[in-house]
Write a structure and sequence with these properties.
The complex is a heterodimer of chains A (140) and B (402). Chain A has 1 helix and 10 strands, in the order H-E-E-E-E-E-E-E-E-E-E. Chain A has 140 residues and is mainly beta. Chain A has one domain. In chain A, strands 1-10-9-6-7-8 form a 6-stranded mixed beta sheet. Chain B is α/β, with parallel strands linked by helices and 402 residues long. Chain B has a single domain, classed as Thiolase/Chalcone synthase (Peroxisomal Thiolase, Chain A, domain 1). Chain B is 34% helix and 17% strand. In chain B, the strands form 2 sheets. Chain B has a 9-stranded mixed beta sheet, with helices on both faces. In chain B, strand 2, helix 2 and strand 3 form a beta-alpha-beta unit. In chain B, helix 3 packs across helix 13. The N and C termini of chain B lie close together (7 Å). The relative contact order of chain B is 0.19. The chains are: A mainly beta (140), B alpha/beta (402). The interface between A and B is large, with 52 and 49 residues. Strand 6 of chain A pairs antiparallel with strand 5 of chain B. The complex binds zinc ion. The site of zinc ion (ZN) has 8 residues of chain A, from loops.
């Protein structure tokens, strides 16, 4: 029964990137982890960039983390909405790249060291009725 | 003292940086090349190898250049290594001499970039929104730039500086703006700089924000420009005139590195480790330390980048870059002047030319030919460039004793 629900769900929702997992529970990120040295990669790798091994396993990334750096982009390529906060979040030892959401884009509200958690949002629905889901991080 | 195995810069030149609508890419390369050859008192007939770089053109800049300055049939290496392209061309010519396949070589970097606007960002077009279609290694159904962080250069390097501040403290908007204030002040003495206007701190902070904490004057200036260098073996230099030997500049170290794997490098390019590695290798090869340097030209593509490279190049202790700046050391009258040319923020950053232009600046001082901006008594200097991807070039240069 559960698997049917997952299948029907994936038919109507698609993640912005394949390392964002949308199943029954809270959305989460996954990485390809090298089984030999533990290095993690959000994209597939032909071999591990750290130790050259070719064995990987999928691991779940914690949903909470700490903002270790950021910028507030005010000037971007055409079609990109500004301003937005781009940053790096340390999620339990794995560095994740993402935008901050649900917080004003100014240096009074965004500070390195702040605690954040994963959040998702809709990018819109295509002609087949499939909704694309993006992710970001919000103050925890 | 000239050792046979040492390698020297015999002639070097950079063009005026800025808007050069009258000249095309090959014109600019030819201008720098002919001036570098004349500076060294040699001709294309003396060159055994040519290495050349240009990122924005149609490819094959080396052969295009030969058509304008002399086709002698020598091997040409067209190199491409992001913002380290010029340094890579120089390193290639040096390696050819080191390998014993050339006595003299020519390295050239050129770019037409005036009015290029924002670099990085955008990315390839993904789904049109009618059908979400996964693309690429992340299976992305839409452009990720602006949705999952930023690909823009000002944004990437802003994070590099802010990360340093998070780790060690003391780096804020005001500090980064003051780094930019220094470089713009230095530029007023450089007639070849694209921009040589002094800005007040308030003017810098109140200018258009590009990617916090980098405002427009804190970003490198896109412009046109070229630089070229003639390199020569010590053995060959001995056969030239005393005047050529006196003006030659010794290459104490020439190092090129790429970025080794680091935990976070997949989400934010690591510009630190490869610079630290290059600096350590260069100091070791030269048998000198940062305390022996009289000036440094480092890759201040953004004000936020300059800060981290004080630390990466060992100009200060680990984590002490803010204190180093606050001490006044990197100002032209300080203990270790950094970017007395005005740096990329004011001199300009015609990408492929930058790696040789930084070396030209250092050579200019070591030859005691820098005029109003001369660092008095300079005998040793370091030039650094970094290109995202990543590639880093570090050269340590020493005044001739002849
Ligand atoms: Zn591994």
């Amino acid at each position: 029964m559960a698997s049917v629900e997952v299948m029907s769900d994936t038919a109507t929702r698609v993640p912005l990137v394949d390392y964002l997992v949308l199943d029954d529970g809270d959305p989460y990120l996954v990485a390809h982890e090298c089984t030999s040295c533990g290095a993690r990669f959000f994209d597939r790798r032909n071999a591990c960039a750290s130790c050259f091994s070719t064995e990987f396993q999928i691991v779940k990334i914690p949903r909470e983390g700490v903002l270790t750096t950021f910028t507030i982009v005010a000037f971007a390529a055409p079609g990109v909405e500004v301003p937005f906060v781009a940053g790096v979040i340390d999620c339990g030892g794995t560095s994740v790249r993402g935008n901050l959401r649900n917080v004003p884009a100014d240096d009074d509200h965004v500070r390195t060291g702040m605690n954040v958690r994963l959040t998702t949002y809709s990018l819109g629905t295509d002609d087949d009725g499939v909704e694309a889901i993006g992710f970001g991080f919000e103050p925890a | 003292m000239i050792n046979d195995d040492d390698i020297w810069i015999l002639g070097i030149n950079m063009t005026k940086f800025g808007k050069r609508p009258d000249l095309d890419t090959v014109d600019l390369a030819a201008e720098a090349t002919m001036a570098a050859l004349a500076d060294g008192g040699v001709t294309m007939a003396d060159m055994d190898v040519l290495a050349a770089g240009n990122l924005m053109g149609r490819g094959g800049i080396g052969q295009q250049l030969q058509k304008q300055v002399g086709q002698t049939g020598i091997p040409v290496f067209n190199v491409s290594n992001a913002c380290a392209t010029g340094a890579t061309a120089l390193r290639t010519a040096i390696m050819a001499i080191k390998a014993g396949e050339a006595d003299m070589g020519l390295a050239v970097g050129v770019e037409k970039l005036a009015g290029a606007g924002l670099l990085g960002g955008g990315g390839e077009a993904k789904s049109d929104g009618h059908h979400w279609e996964p693309n690429g290694r992340y299976g992305a159904v839409a452009t990720t730039d602006g949705r999952i962080g930023t690909d823009t250069m000002p944004g990437v390097f802003a994070q590099v500086g802010m990360e340093y501040g998070h780790k060690y403290g003391g780096a804020d908007f005001d500090l980064f703006a003051r780094i930019s204030e220094k470089n713009h002040a230095h530029s007023t003495l450089n007639p070849l700089a694209a921009y040589s206007k002094r800005f007040t701190l308030d003017e810098i902070k109140d200018d258009i924000m590009i990617a916090y904490p980098n405002t427009r004057p804190m970003c490198s200036a896109n412009c046109d420009g070229a630089a070229a260098a003639v390199v020569i073996s010590g053995e060959k230099l001995k056969s030239l005139s005393i005047e050529q030997q006196r003006r030659a500049v010794k290459i104490k170290a020439s190092v090129l590195t790429s970025d080794p794997w680091q935990e976070a490098c997949q989400v934010l390019p690591d510009v630190n480790t490869l610079t630290k590695n290059a600096a350590a290798t260069a100091y070791e090869a030269a048998g000198v330390g940062p305390e022996d340097l009289d000036l440094v030209e480092l890759h201040d593509c953004f004000a936020t980048a300059e800060l981290v490279h004080y630390d990466n190049l060992g100009l200060c202790g680990e984590g002490n870059a803010v204190d180093f700046f606050e001490s006044g050391a990197p100002w032209r009258d300080g203990a270790l002047p950094v970017n007395v040319s005005g740096g990329l923020q004011s001199k300009g950053h015609p990408i492929s030319a930058t790696g040789i232009a930084n070396i030209w600046e250092v050579c200019h001082h070591l030859r005691d030919e820098a005029g109003d901006r001369q660092i008095q008594g300079a005998t040793m200097g370091l030039a650094h460039v970094i290109g995202l991807g990543s590639a880093c070039g570090v050269h340590i240069l020493e005044k001739s004793a002849a």
